[in-house]
Amino acid sequence: FVLHSGDVKEHYHLLHAEKADIEDEIGEDLNWRELPNHKQSDATLENEQFDPNDRSQWPEQYAWFQKQLEAFYRAFSPRIKTLDANDYVPDEEPDEL
Length: 97
Description:
This protein has 3 helices and 3 strands. By secondary structure, the protein is mainly alpha-helical.
């Protein structure tokens, strides 16, 4: 998934707080990137076993991709629909001396 508009920081942290449950539902560890100096954040999944240039792998790649898209939809869709940036409470900053 890619968050690229609205309350990106807040929504990313709310989803990241559910990282373990989301990854359990998907069945894979995701690459979570907050990208604080950018206007987006994301969580991605890669399969380094595939070579996109190898046409003989395309049917297997498409099947894997479809399975992962469906898993992402099941895991993220209900969560994203209920995201409320007001639910995000940032960690407190230490008092300055």
